[in-house]
Amino acid sequence: MIYLLAALLPPLGLLLNGQPFSAIFNLVLIVFCVVLGLIFHVLLLVPSAHALIAVHMKREDRRHREVVEAIRRHGSPPGYPR
Length: 82
Fold this sequence. Notes:
Keywords: Membrane, Transmembrane, Transmembrane helix. By secondary structure, the chain is mainly α. The chain has 4 helices and no strands.
C-alpha cells in the first residue's frame, strides 16, 4: 500500500514511511520537474521514482536490521560458516 501511495502522492508516501527529509526534497523535486517537464515529459516521472526507491531502500534497511538483531539474539543459523 505504501508503494501505491509513494507512486501517486510521493511526498505523502515518504512522510508516512518516516522520511521527512526525503519528502521535503521530493517537494523541491516536484517543482523542478513540473517546470522542466513541460519540455521533457519524462521528468514528470522522476519524483515518483525517487519516492518508490526511497521507500524500498528504507524497507530493506529495516529488514536488514531485523535479521542482524535476530542473529545477535539467537546466534547464527546451523551450518553457517563463521
